[in-house]
Amino acid sequence: MAAIESADLPRGQEAAPLRRFGLPRFAMIRPAVPDRPVVLVTGTVRKPAQVDLADVLLSLGRCERRGAVHCVTTWSTTDLLWGGVPFRAVHELFSALVRPHPDCAWVVFVGLDGYRSCLSLADALAEDVLFADTLDGAPLTADQGAPVRLIAPVHYGYKSVRHVCAVEYRLTYDSGSASWLAHRRGRVAHEERGPILPGWMWRPVWRQLVPRIRRLYARNSG
Ligand SMILES: Nc1nc2c(c(=O)[nH]1)N[C@H]1C(S)=C(S)[C@@H](COP(=O)(O)O)O[C@H]1N2
Ligand SMILES: [Mo]
């Protein structure tokens, strides 16, 4: 399908349907959804804890938000209706349990596939960041990131970790799975696509990788 460049999309982005996508080395890792999912809450904390995801999702007020996935490689899927609980509320619950060091300024989200991505705690606590377990009213499928995924809609998609199984509070930034190619903040509006170079210079670098990554993920998705 030909990609459509639209005035409604952020700079440098083209519309595309949502399909499982990510770093090439994670394409082959499709974690099974656990019967009783847990989240490990850890890092520079007084007392790490393991919590039942069901307890987290049931004990907090649910909400729905319209949001997009904007991948740094220049495709975007907009108008997705995510349901879940605000990460802000999840963090309140977690921090009462584990007591993060007061200087923790970063948080890493880890997926069951081993993928890791870091947000500043301030960015993670924005009102629109969700711990999402439904998309358009239906439970997330495995390929969409079940049992729960982060949705950080103003950041590039690599911050929206699927299959979250651990949350790590940190004093310092950790570049995560994207390593030196990650941007600390990755804000779409500022085109923070990668380190050092301005965003528009990264566009062709990332864009030329999309067909190969799409093929790789299509071969390894349901
Ligand atoms: N667990 C996990 N989460 C991940 C990734 C991954 O490889 N593993 N890839 C990220 C990237 S780069 C993008 S663009 C989005 C894509 O979301 P989608 O798979 O729902 O299209 O997932 C993000 N979250
Ligand atoms: Mo991405």
Automatic annotation (TrEMBL):
Record domain Oxidoreductase molybdopterin-binding: where: 39-169
Source taxon at top rank: Bacteria
SUPFAM superfamilies membership: Oxidoreductase molybdopterin-binding domain
UniProt cross-references to PANTHER family, sorted A to Z: OXIDOREDUCTASE MOLYBDOPTERIN-BINDING DOMAIN-CONTAINING PROTEIN (PTHR43032:SF4), PROTEIN-METHIONINE-SULFOXIDE REDUCTASE (PTHR43032)
Protein name (Swiss-Prot/TrEMBL): Oxidoreductase molybdopterin binding domain-containing protein
Naturally occurring in which organism (per UniProt): Amycolatopsis marina
